[in-house]
Design brief:
Blueprint lengths: L5 E2 L11 E7 L7 E2 L3 E7 L5 E4 L2 E4 L3 E6 L5 E4 L8 E8 L6 H4 L5 H10 L3 E2 L2 H13 L5 H16 L5 E2 L15 H13 L6 H7 L4 H12 L3 H19 L4 H7 L5 H12 L3 H9 L6
Parallel strand pairs: 1-3
Antiparallel strand pairs: 2-9, 4-7, 4-9, 5-6, 5-8, 7-10, 10-11
């Protein structure tokens, strides 16, 4: 998978809790890549830059802060950015720093949810960035235990911040997502295995052993999305993977993933991804696409 994504070997060693880079640059010239380490990336003065995280493509504003999970493909590209004074602060750390046994503690419930979201990539609101950015810019001035305390404090504040946005679709990386509900996990597991055929709310609600109306509310309460939106995201995640890793035509891929109406598929894809399927594939591969 991801044959066009470079595997980066970061300078972080087993003896480091984390590493931090603070760079001034005039352009983005590092290709689409992934790495084992979790990454928090602050970018200032780079309006018009194109950001790719998983299967999410977006043009960024003049400041942004993104948390990226392990092995999640990502990259920033100059695109329409005219700034010659870009400032990028990158913090990388191994996922063992926040091991699952540690995150399961009751006091860390919000940080646990934050790192679960990082598997898809998390973008923070401008209000949060304005609060956190000065602390990130000053973090390389701290040393030893003080630096670790500050980093943990930053992640705590990020975990309780408002208006965060998940970027990549859940199915794109095939990461297991915890819904804290056996019924919901059964239902979503069923949706993941049968997304290519027509699925109804009634059918999936039966898997969860719940009445349709109750199940519909249950999905919305636990995920923030309706049943239809959740199913669409699952299908789009598989579409994105096939666009990148196969030579199938866009029409074939849409049909394989449960989209039987091309006009509707193209409309939904453009709304969700901000680009057409053809443009999405080109962003990853630069290859000619067969319609």
């Amino acid at each position: 998978m991801f044959k066009d994504v470079i595997r980066e070997i970061t300078p972080l060693t087993q003896n480091d809790c984390f590493t931090i880079f603070s760079r001034k640059k005039t352009e983005f010239n590092f290709p689409l890549h992934s790495h084992e380490e979790i990454e928090l990336n602050l970018i200032l003065h780079a309006s018009g830059t194109k950001r790719i995280v998983g299967d999410h493509i977006e043009e960024i504003d003049d400041m942004e802060l993104v948390l990226l999970g392990s092995n999640l493909p990502h990259g920033w590209f100059t695109h329409r950015c005219k700034s010659r004074n870009i400032h990028e602060v990158t913090i990388q750390f191994q996922k063992e720093l926040f091991a699952q046994t540690f995150l399961q503690k009751n006091q860390l419930i919000y940080i646990r949810k934050l790192f679960d979201g990082a598997k898809r990539g998390v973008a923070f609101s401008r209000e949060t960035i304005e609060t956190i950015a000065p602390r990130l810019l000053a973090l390389d001035k701290k040393t030893g235990f003080d630096s670790i305390l500050e980093l943990f404090s930053i992640f705590h504040d990020l975990s309780i911040s408002r208006n965060i946005k998940m970027l990549s679709d859940t199915t794109f990386m095939k990461e297991q997502v915890s819904y804290n509900s056996r019924r919901l996990e059964r239902a979503f597991d069923y949706m993941h295995h049968h997304f290519s055929k027509e699925l109804t709310l009634k059918e999936v609600a039966k898997v969860a052993n719940m009445p349709e109306a109750s199940f519909s509310r249950f999905v919305k309460m636990h995920t923030g999305y309706t049943f239809t939106e959740s199913l669409t995201d699952i299908r789009l995640g598989h579409v994105s993977r096939l666009l990148i890793d196969t030579t199938h035509s866009i029409a074939e891929i849409a049909n394989k993933c449960g989209f039987n109406n091309m006009a509707n598929f193209n409309r939904i894809f453009k709304i969700k991804k901000g680009c057409t399927p053809k443009e999405f594939k080109k962003n990853y591969t630069g290859q000619r696409v067969f319609i």
